[in-house]
Amino acid sequence: MNKNIDFVIVSYKSFAMADLLIRSIHKYTSPYDYHIYLVDNSDECDLFEKYKGDKFTYLKGDNTVPQKRFPSQISSAHSHGLQQGIENGSADYICLLDVDTCFLNEWTEYVIPRLDEHLFVSHRWEESRQIARPMFLVTKREYCSKYKIDLSDAYQDSGGIFTKRSIEHNLSYEILINSYNEKRYQKIHAIDPGRKIIGSGEQAFVQVPTDSSYELVPFFWHYGRGTVLGMDEKWYELLGEYLK
Question: What's the pLDDT tens digit per position in 78-106?
């Protein structure tokens, strides 16, 4: 297989979170080749020295990008950082990730082929703004060029431009089964079932075929509060144990 994926992550004083996410990418991205572009909007370059190599590129971001006005609700610096990572890559596929996320299982064989029929695949829908979100969002690079997708155009919120382009061009997209949009799935979280320890977090699932039907397999976890409201230290403990 010669297909490859560019992972794009924007970090702001979030090395410990990024460290877990990068570990999970290394563990669960197969059989695709991949490259990680980490855009740092703070100043943690020295901390990421251990990752530099064939699969990792550190990019200095800009946290001074002016905030867009309503209806955009995002950090414009984050959105510009995502675009910066995209423009530095060249892989067939692009996977956008929030820094407070983690892969839980192999996923590429169940998700990537869906892009032959869809503009993008995301793990969650945000009803209040009517957009899919890019805590996990994967697309083809050729689509970004063909449909002029620029993440710095912060439609509604980070990543909203994908939903906007899908509407404008009458293109389909897919939202995976997840415990943000369907709360009943919180009880089968792979990390902190029922959210009894942390009280936050959402999980996405892939449908893996079985002899009779399919089973839901967890593949992705999003802490859900990021760096804005602070992190529960148990989050690092649970994820670190899971990734051993």
Answer: 888 999 999 999 999 999 999 999 999 99
41-51 pLDDT, tens per residue?
988 888 888 88
Residue 32 makes CB contacts below 8 A (sequence gap 6+) with: 1, 3, 4, 5, 93, 108, 112
Is residue 196 a part of any domain in this protein?
A: no
Q: Residue 57 belongs to what H/E stretch? A: strand 56-60
Residue 123: closest CA among 140, 142, 103: 103
How many separate domains does the chain show? 1
- Calpha distance 195→202 (Å, rounded): 9
Q: Give the Å distances, CA to CA, from 8 to 5, 95, 130, 230.
A: 10, 6, 23, 22
User: In the structure encoding, which two tokens stand for residue 129, read together?
Assistant: 């703004």
Residues 6+ apart with CB under 8 A from 191: 102, 104, 201, 203, 221, 238, 239, 242
CA 113, CA 115: separation in Å to the nearest integer?
A: 5
d(CA 140, CA 163): 15
Q: Are 198 and 100 in contact (CB under 8 A)?
A: no
Alpha-carbon distance of 88 to 6, in angstroms, equals 9
At 156 the pLDDT is 85
* CATH for 28: 3.90.550.10
DSSP letter string, 171-198? ---EE--BTTT-GGGGGG-SSSGGG-SS
For 142, 216, 235, the CA distances from 211, given in Å and listed in that order, are 35, 14, 36
8 Å CB contact between 178 and 205:
yes
In this prediction the pTM is: 0.94
Domain of 110, in residue numbers: 4-176
